[in-house]
Design brief:
The complex is a heterodimer of chains A (276) and B (437). Chain A has 276 residues and is an all-alpha fold. Chain A has 14 helices and no strands. The chains are: A mainly alpha (276), B alpha+beta (437).
Amino acid sequence: MARAVSPRRKFLTTLAAWSVALIIFFPVLWMILTSFKTEVSAVASPPQLFTADWTLENYAEVWARSDYPRFFWNSVVISVGSTLLGLVIAIPSAWAMAFVPGKRTKDLLMWMLSTKMMPAVAVMIPLYLIFLWTGLIDTKIGLVIALMLMNLPIIIWMLYTYFKEIPGEILEAARMDGASLWNEILYVLTPMAIPGIASTMLLNIILAWNEAFWTIVLTTTKAAPLSAFIASFSAPQGLFYAKLSAASAMAIMPILILGWFSQKQLVRGLTFGAVK
Amino acid sequence: MTVSIRALLGACAVGAICTAAAAETTITVATVNNGDMVRMQGLMDDFYAKHPDIKVEWVTLEENVLRQNVTTDIATGGGQYDVITIGTYEVPIWGKQGWLESLNDMPADFDVDDLLPPIRGGLTVDGNLYASPFYGESSFVNYRKDLAEKAGITIPDAPTWDDIKAAAAAMTDQANGIYGICLRGKAGWGENMAFLTTMANSYGARWFDENWVPQFDQPEWKAVMTDYVEMLTKYGPPGASNNGYNENLTLSLQGKCAMRMDATVSAGALTDPKQSEFADKVGFALAPDAGLGKRANWLWAWSLAIPASSDAKDAAKTFINWATNKDYIALVASKEGWGAAPPGTRTSLYSNPDYAALPFAKMTIDSINAADPTNPTVKPVPYTGVQFVAIPEFAGLATSVGEIFSAALAGQKSVDDALAEAQALALDEMTASGYIK
């Protein structure tokens, strides 16, 4: 039976939740407001949340100076491509770990996760050389592979967690009915895990979209995504905060909208298995 | 028959197009985002009209990211970039490493002898010019003439540090948000250490003696740090240890810095009424000295160079010749006025009466000419570079020392402790790097 919550407690909890949300969202809000200020207003001292001289000039200038659609398209290809490729590899891997675990499965899972703890810069030169020798520098396929490898541990871990929730007896029943391994994964396991696969996919698209180390190191002109687009508006000398904010807002807006519309799936994905 | 002729003509046309496309060379130019570079990208129609066979693709990156990417690419022989934008610090180091293509064979119209001698000297290694300057700068003092007048003082064109300290004290009006002096306090080899190294040069201090032994334990550095911390603590803006170039420029544009010492390239913004309401009240003076024969002004140039790994060196040279030629400066002037011309690279610019009439032109050229990268200090040193030491270890070491000095400015440690810590750190680094046997 659900416990009654007093209006006062509800009010306080809501207030606390909104306060935390506002604190977390404040940098993004500041960035969006700055993108509509003039460069001089953007660096006013003391800082001002609002200004009298709102302008769209920063967006116009950023649009005129850069080929935004090309950067945007590269981001879409790289983030969606790396996620789909990751799923193709991760679904069979997670199936094996969840339903036919070996003695070292747990160790393997931990080892995969440990690769995420290594600073990216540690492998910069070897990976750069490999990409150079294989002709993958500044190619979308190269970045798809790099980001897929980077996010694969997370994809496998998330799918493993979902698959563990699916009763093994259902798969056994399918096998008894003569399903091959491929049919078992494709027609029995995958449909049951679609909510989990969808949230894994969404989270990894967001991670790949926001990646700003390899996407800048391994690209120059052809495959550079929106992270490189943002970096091009930081200046060593002169005022640039307003234009940088406009570029950042243009870069995050598509993924913010995607996240907004899919937040139910995302929250489910992030909290799955938290309460048992 | 007709069909055959049409097919033949079509094949010829396709062939011609293919041949034309094959003849086109694409070069990738890596650059930083600043006003002059952005302006150049807007003037590319002129380049394409003159060189339709060369296509230019731009990679614009944040300064430190650019350094990292270009270093990685050159060190691995990647060949991703054909023209790179690099500073005066990198050129002698990369030139010596054999990472850059010599520009000694530029065409006659490049007019290498027109380059300002100090800038050219900073980009030359063993007689080889390894980069062509796109714009150059020194540092100078800018101040609000109205506040100086109100305080009843005159700032000489060539002030001493005593003049600067007295002027800062006289013009400070903290109750009204006016700060007597703004100097770089943010940690970084290109931020507070650029300024402090030039201040040290003028005080008779140096980073290393002739045997590469660090000199932070010497009385000259004590005097530098004591005066620096005292000036900014008494007359500087709050939070001075977080202020770099952009922050102090902003304060100056808002009229809150009565006086500031920084890059000459900021003169354009300071005298632009669109950016500053004090544009008609700004005065300029040379960087100060302490009567020892060296002024506290630096020398820097953003320059264009060709990585040795480029496979389109000829096209890259054609582009560099266009972008750093006298004709390009004239092109900018014809489109946007002389005030927008890239400064600090060519003698001819400063002999042009239209440019010389600008309020900051004379002070800029005097400041650049006062800097000598091959003889930057009062006492002898084994290195070149005015606001840096042209060795690969400097960037990391100076950033660490900059953090220590920034902490001293923030009051987190004493000047003595900061200097002792910097000395120990530099001694370790120079020993580990093999400079001290």
